[in-house]
Design brief:
The structure is a homodimer of 467-residue chains. With 467 residues, the first copy, chain A, is of the alpha+beta class. The first copy, chain A, has helices at 8-26, 34-39, 61-73, 126-132, 150-155, 163-166, 169-172, 201-205, 239-251, 264-274, 293-309, 321-332, 334-339, 359-371, 399-415, 434-438, 441-452; strands at residues 30-31, 54-56, 78-81, 98-101, 108-112, 117-121, 138-139, 173-179, 185-188, 214-221, 223-224, 228-236, 258-262, 283-290, 312-318, 346-353, 377-382, 387-394. Chain A contains 17 helices and 18 strands. In chain A, the strands form four sheets. A seven-stranded antiparallel beta sheet of chain A has the order 15-12-14-13-17-18-16, with helices on both faces. Chain A has a five-stranded antiparallel beta sheet with strand order 5-6-10-8-9. In chain A, 36% of the residues lie in helices and 21% in strands. Chains A and B meet through strand 9, helix 8, helix 9, helix 11 and helix 16 of A and strand 9, helix 8, helix 9, helix 11 and helix 16 of B.
Chain lengths: 467, 467
C-alpha cells in the first residue's frame, strides 16, 4: 500500500486477481466466502471485528511464501491467524486483505529427547503438542489459559502459570522459520542452546504479533516432566501477606513451578463454578516440582512455614493426583467461573505486570478501584512474575466504564515501573499505551517495522503505526 | 561516512574539530594521546590491533549522547570499549574514529532485594558488581572467565559456567538504556519480569556488540545465593560417557548449577599449573545448588549413580569450601594453565556450541583433528549447554595452521546444527562464518543495522557489513 492511493474498484480488481492466483496453488484452500471471512474477523476479545477479504489455509512454508508473494504483487495486507483466542484484537483484519489461517500446519516435525527440543509447525496447538510428547518424559511448559497455537503463543510472547520457573515463550523458542513480507524464507537461531553469532532475530519475531513476518516453524525447548509434584492451596488474611510469602519463597530458592493468586471475588466465583469450598480470602495456589517426593516435601514445608509467618490461614495439601487436577482445572476455568457471575455478559479481560515489590500495592489499589464500579470483576494472577489479570463482566452499557478502568489500571502499572501487558500482547487494544510505556523507544520499533515491512502489509495497525 | 568520500586532510580536520568539541565538555577525558589509542586498539585476541583516533571516557549517559552527537556531526565511527577482554576483535577500531571507554561509568544505581534485580552502569565489571552485592543474599550469575564489564558481557551475549542453570546474558538482562547513533537516548524493557508490550528491543541490543547503539545502563536479574552447595569431580573412561552422564542428569531434572568438561590435555595442563592431581582423563566438574545440605546430597548421589553407569572413574566430593574454591579457581585458570604449556606463545581461543546430542561426537572429532597438528591445544567446555572452547598455543609460524583448524571446527559445528560461537561473539574474527550459519537471515541483520545506523558509524566492520 505505502503512500499509493487506490480506488475501491482498483482494490476489488486486485483482490480478484489475487484470489485467482492463490486458487492456482491452494485450490479451495483460498476463499472469499462469507463464513470464513466472519470466522477470521476477530479473536476472543470485545474489540470490534474486522473482516479480511480473503482467507487462505496454507499447508507448507513454501505455500506461505507463495501467498506472501501474491500479496506483495497486489498490495494486500496479510494477517496471520492461529486458534483465534487472542484478547487484544491481534487477528482482526483492520485493513482487510488476507487472513492466513495456520491451523493446517500442525505437524510435529521432530522431537529430540536428548536435546530436549522439538520442531513444530506454527499452527499446532499446545494440547496437540502435549499429546505428541506423551511417553517422551518431556513437556512443553508454556500454558496460557486457551488452547492457542504455538505460533500464536510465540507471536504474543505468551507465558501462563509455569513461567515463574520455566520461562515464557521468549525463553522457550530456540529458533524459527519465518516468511518475510516479500515471500523470502529465513531461519533464525540454531539447535544449539545458546549462541553469540549476531543479532537475536528469534527474539525479534517472538512478540512481534505477525507485524514483521509470518512464523511457519518453531524449534521449542522442552523440559523434563518432574519426578514428583506437590500442590497446596492457602488462604491469607491479606493480599500483602500472600505476596510477601511469594517474594520470600523465591528469595529462598524454593523455585516454585507455579504460584497463582486469586482475590476474594475470584475465589468466590471459583467455588460456585467448580464446586470447591475454598475460604473466600486472598488465596495462593502452589505447585512444586522435584526429583523425589522427599525433595518436594522439604520444599513445600519451607513454603508452609513462610505462609504461616505471613498470615496464612492453613496450608492444604492436595496429595492425590485427582485432587491436584481438580484444583488446577478450577484455576484454568477462572474465565468461565467469572463469566458465570453474570451470565450472558461481555467480558473484558486485561493484564498488567509490575515489579513484584509493588504487586500487593497494585492489586489492593486495583481492587479498591473495582469496588467503586458498577460491574462484577475478579483478579487472578501469576504472582511469581508480578503479572495479574482482571476480568470484568459487563452489560453493554458498562463498556465505557470498563474502558476507563482498564486505562487507569495500565497507568497504575506503568507508574510502578511495570508494563501495560504481561502476556496478552498489544494487538490494537493496547497500542495507545505504548508511547507512555516506551517513550522514544517506540520510534525504534517503528524503524524496525519500516525496515522489514516497508509497505506495512504485515498485520497492519497492530503494535506500531507507520503510516 | 555513508557513500561520501573524504580526503585524508578532510578527515584530519574533522578529527581536530571533533576533539575540540569533545574537550569542551569532557576536558582531559577526551584525548588523542598515543598511549590511550594503543591501549584501545585491541582486546585479548590475536587479531591485528587497529587504533582509534580519539579516546573518550564518559561518566554519564548524557555525555555519551553528546559524544554521539559530535561523532554524527563529523562522520566519525564510535567503538564502545569495556574491559578489553574480548576475543574476536570486537573493540579494535577498524576504521579509526572514537573509542568510547566505558570504565568510568561503573556505579551501581540501585539494587532491589525483593525484585532480585539491579540497575548498573555499563562499565562496571562483574567482580565490582559481585562486591556490591555482598550481604544482599543475591548474586549475578553470569561469569565469563575474564573480569569483563557488564555492558561488554551483554554486548557479546556472554554466558560462562552457570548458564546451564541460570541462563546467559540474554536471560539476565531485563532492560537497557541505549544511546543511538544520532545521540538519542532510549530505554528498553521495564522492571516487570516479563512483558508482551511490543518488540523485544532489549534482546536486539544484547549480542549486537555495539553495532546498533551504546548501552549505558543495564537492569540485570539477580539470583538468590544457594543455601547449600555441593561440588564434585569425576574422571571418565571416555568423552561419550561424560557427555551421556550430563544428558541424563539434565533429563532427570538434577538442574546442575555448573557442569564443566575438560579433556585430557586440559586436565594435564591444570594439574601442572594449579598443582592438582586429577586423573588425566576426560573429566567433569559438577556443582549443585540446593535449599539444604540434604537436598544437595540427594541430587549429587543421583549424579554419582549416573556417572558410575557411564564409565565414571570415581566421584570425588569437595566437602570443604577451600577445596571447592581450589577446584573452581583451577577451572577458571585454564587459560593461564594452557598458556603455560608453551610459555611465551600466542593463544588462539575459539568456541563453538552444538546440540548436546552431538557434543561427544564433536569433541572427539575435534580432538582427533588437533592431535594431527603441530601445536599443543586443550578443550574445555560448558558441557551442559553444548558449548566448548579450544585453546591453541602457537609459535608465530603456526598461525595459519591454527586458522584452518578454527575454520574446520566451525564447519563441523555448523554441520551438526550448531553455531560458530556460543559465547565469545562475532567481532570481526567470525564475521566470515555468518553467511553459512544464517543464510538469508544475515540479510535481515543487515537491514536492521541499516535501519538503526544508516551511516554505519557504530562499531563498523563488526557482525555485518553494510557498505
Amino acid at each position: 500500500m505505502g503512500t499509493e492511493i487506490r480506488t475501491a474498484a482498483g482494490y476489488q480488481s486486485a483482490l480478484e486477481l489475487a484470489l485467482e492466483e492463490l486458487r492456482a496453488f491452494l485450490g479451495s484452500r483460498a476463499t472469499a466466502g462469507e463464513a470464513a471471512r466472519h470466522h477470521h474477523s476477530h479473536g476472543e476479545s470485545t474489540h470490534p471485528p474486522a473482516l479480511p477479504d480473503l482467507v487462505c489455509f496454507p499447508q507448507t512454508t513454501s505455500e506461505v511464501s507463495q501467498i506472501m508473494q501474491v500479496s506483495a504483487r497486489h498490495g494486500l495486507p496479510v494477517v496471520p491467524f492461529g486458534a483465534g483466542t487472542s484478547l487484544e484484537g491481534h487477528v482482526n483484519a483492520l485493513r482487510g486483505g488476507i487472513s492466513l489461517d495456520m491451523r493446517q500446519m500442525n505437524r510435529v516435525l521432530r522431537v529430540s529427547v536428548e536435546d530436549m527440543d522439538a520442531t513444530v509447525e506454527a499452527g499446532i496447538s499446545r494440547l496437540q503438542l502435549a499429546k505428541a510428547l506423551e511417553n517422551t518424559g518431556l513437556m512443553f511448559s508454556v500454558d496460557p489459559g486457551a488452547d492457542a497455537t504455538i505460533g500464536g503463543m510465540a507471536s504474543t510472547r505468551a507465558s501462563g502459570t509455569m513461567a515463574v520457573r520455566y520461562g515464557t515463550m521468549r525463553e522457550n523458542v530456540l529458533g524459527l522459520t519465518v516468511v518475510l513480507a516479500d515471500g523470502r524464507i529465513i531461519h533464525t537461531g540454531t539447535r544449539a542452546r545458546k549462541s553469540s553469532a549476531g543479532y537475536d532475530l528469534t527474539r525479534l519475531f517472538v512478540g512481534a504479533e505477525g507485524t514483521l513476518g509470518v512464523m511457519t516453524e518453531l524449534t521449542v525447548r522442552l523440559h523434563p516432566l518432574p519426578e514428583a509434584v506437590g500442590v497446596a492451596v492457602s488462604a491469607f488474611a491479606s493480599v500483602e501477606g500472600a505476596v510477601r510469602t511469594v517474594i520470600e519463597a523465591i528469595q529462598l530458592g524454593l523455585s516454585p513451578a507455579r504460584i497463582e493468586f486469586m482475590d476474594e471475588a475470584q475465589v468466590d466465583a471459583v467455588n460456585r463454578y467448580s464446586r470447591l469450598e475454598l475460604a473466600v480470602k486472598p488465596t495462593l495456589l502452589f505447585e512444586f516440582h522435584g526429583i523425589s517426593e522427599a525433595s518436594v516435601e522439604e520444599t513445600a514445608r519451607l513454603a508452609e512455614q513462610l505462609a504461616a509467618e505471613h498470615g496464612g490461614l492453613g496450608f492444604n495439601w492436595e496429595t492425590t493426583p485427582a485432587g491436584r487436577e481438580r484444583l488446577w482445572k478450577a484455576r484454568h476455568d477462572v474465565y468461565y467461573a467469572s463469566r458465570a457471575l453474570l451470565p450472558g455478559s461481555e467480558t473484558l479481560t486485561t493484564d498488567v505486570c509490575v515489579p513484584i515489590s509493588r504487586m500487593a500495592e497494585c492489586i489492593v489499589a486495583t481492587r479498591a478501584d473495582l469496588d467503586a464500579l458498577s460491574f462484577p470483576a475478579t483478579i487472578v494472577g501469576h504472582v511469581g512474575d508480578g503479572n495479574f489479570h482482571v476480568l470484568c463482566m459487563l452489560a453493554p452499557e458498562q463498556a465505557a466504564e470498563a474502558a476507563s478502568f482498564a486505562a487507569r489500571l495500565v497507568e497504575r502499572a506503568l507508574a510502578m515501573g511495570g508494563t501495560c501487558t504481561g502476556e496478552h500482547g498489544v494487538g490494537y487494544g493496547k497500542k495507545k499505551y505504548l508511547k507512555s510505556e516506551h517513550g522514544e523507544a517506540l520510534e525504534v520499533m517503528r524503524m524496525l517495522k519500516l525496515a522489514l515491512d516497508p509497505e506495512n502489509r504485515m498485520n497492519p495497525g497492530k503494535i506500531v503505526d507507520v503510516d
